[in-house]
Amino acid sequence: MAAIKHRRTALERVEKFISDTYFTDCNLRGRLFGDRCPLASLSYFQTPRRIPYEEAVVQEFGPAQVGQSFGPTWETCWFKVELSIPSAWAGREVHFVWESDGEGMVWRDAQPVQGLTKEGEKTSYILTRSLKESEPHSLTLYVELACNGLFGAGKGSMIAPPDPDRRVTLSKAELVVFNRDVYELLVDLEILLDMAQLLGEENQRSFQALYTANQMVNVCDVMDPSTFPATRDLAAAIFSQRNGESQHTVHAMGHCHIDSAWLWPYEETIRKCARSWVTVVQLMEHNPELTFACSQAQQFEWVRRSYPGLYARIQDFVAKGQFIPVGGTWVEMDGNLPSGESMVRQFLQGQRFFQEQFGRICSEFWLPDTFGYSAQLPQLMHGCGIQRFLTQKLSWNLVNSFPHHTFFWEGIDGSQVLTHFPPGDSYGMHGRVEEVLKTVKNNKDKGRVNHSAFLFGFGDGGGGPTQKMLDRMKRMSDTDGLPRVQISTPDQLFSVLEKESSQLCTWVGELFLELHNGTYTTQAQIKKGNRECEQILHDVEVLSTLAVAQDKEFQYPASQLQQLWRLLLLNQFHDVLPGSCIQLVVEDALQYYTEIRRVGAQLQEKAVESMCRDLLQPEEGSTQSTLVLNTLSWERTEVISRPGPNGKETLGMSDLGLCDLWFSLGRVLEQNLFAFQLW
Ligand SMILES: [Zn+2]
After folding, report:
1. Distance in Å, CA 670 to ligand 1 centroid
2. Which residues are catalytic?
3. Which CATH class is domain 249-508?
4. CATH of domain 32-178
5. Boundaries of each Glycoside hydrolase family 38 central domain copy (predicted)?
6. DSSP codes joined into one string, 294-324
7. For residue 273, how far is its CA from the centre of ligand 1 (angstroms)?
8. Model pLDDT for residues 108-134, shown as the tens digit of each residue
9. Considering the entire predicted model, what is its pTM?
10. How far is the CA of 410 from the centre of ligand 1 (A)?
């Protein structure tokens, strides 16, 4: 077949040539893997706890086999994998393949090396890219398998309460030869096929792509790898035909949106971060161009504490500019419910962490998934060293389509931040032709600015980007007919947007999300806990500050306050404070509030004792004393209660004034009157 006689027939011919469903006994896809070899041995032990590697490997392991199921939900299985690579595979690329519906992590030499998650298209760990005689052919790996899926264990639907009896099945565990040359051809053909189908019949590049793909099928003999280079040359010829200067630029950045808790508890998120980020740094080792934007200081702190070896590797890639901390906040918090002070603390704790750990603060506020954005945020961002903002959640609006993708967002005091919504309406792209075309098509400001963000990678423990995503985008870097796809950074994107920003429109006021409205009324205990704890921490800080001002011996409880603030800020995560999480998370959150109340009360007491030691002594002729403090900066009249004679509660009216120091102490006497001690 030298020429295309019929478009549909030619399209189908190419489709079948790379299909993973049809003709895999004789098509190119069927040649992706070569010889296979079973594991030398597989054994496991199971635990209800999430334990460290050192504790796991000294347990007693019993036999396990492929096809076996493990559970119930939230348990962890540790597998000891002994493998022996056949010496006949010299020179070949060898993968350890592991397929299960649980979330896995490979450990090698006591270090995590690779996440394994079917939903994240990560089912193999590369043992060697070209087997040499000198390298060890026999080795032992461990696989830590969480008995939950990427999105927890919802019974019946993803967001339903978890099924406590869910089991995960180990469906594959073996060694295989991976044919890299076949893989490269498959990626070429997938891109050409997508161009042929998606650019449309009226587009000449669609015809050229299809003609080339058809020619490739002609030239390629799947049984004869010596035909592969000539086949690849055909693809390279079309990919190297470049765009004109007017073409739109898509700024691709690796990303893995990890909800700090949602359909799984906080503790599982720590492992999700490790599984995902180790996969990212592993990919960076072989792809120095890969960039990865990573938010939420809390998650960095979790990995720092629990996976110091991995954290050190991350720090190296941060220094190289590939692993890029963004956001500036402690977590990706809810954008409406936290108090203004809490919002400031999100930035304060976050930026301070990034400064201490990586030597710089973040320049971009990064909050892609929160359910609406308060109009006070632009002002707060300015105050925290940030004038750029990225989100995309408003694309979920039920009624109105937001009119911009790149614009200035103006807050209540007139502060403006340059804002960008990735026009592909997702923070989990896969680097496909369809997605880059959608990005340009959707962009409502492409007449004003010719650049869009494109965040690619599987989220929530799916391990972020894959090699395949990168390889797809390499082919689309500058190919006539497709937008330019450039691996980029948030700074590069916003820098070009800033240069072209003179004609941008301005949106004044809050960014209201027309969806998820029920999150403001559900799980009232969490909302109540948040507000009460915000007040408690405010009071501890006011009282401790006054105590230290009055008594140099008083120790300001800085580190305890930091710990309590961080707990409170964590609970402000955008699936916790809004209540869109499972019951397990609610229980954790309420426990954190109990902890803040408990320690907060102790700290308040210490500060008050230090400040008011004399006032706390009972009045003459009385055994009781009540001290009323006003920690606000205005006068108040409040009804207060205190235990009276015989343990009965009595009520009293207390006017709490304001002194020059904006603080007052009142003392309630026996007759329910009050006295002021101004100072
Ligand atoms: Zn989220």
Report:
1. 54
2. 369
3. alpha beta
4. 2.60.120.260
5. 514-593
6. E--HHHHHHHHHH-HHHHHHHHHHHHTTSEE
7. 14
8. 999 999 999 999 999 999 999 999 999
9. 0.94
10. 24
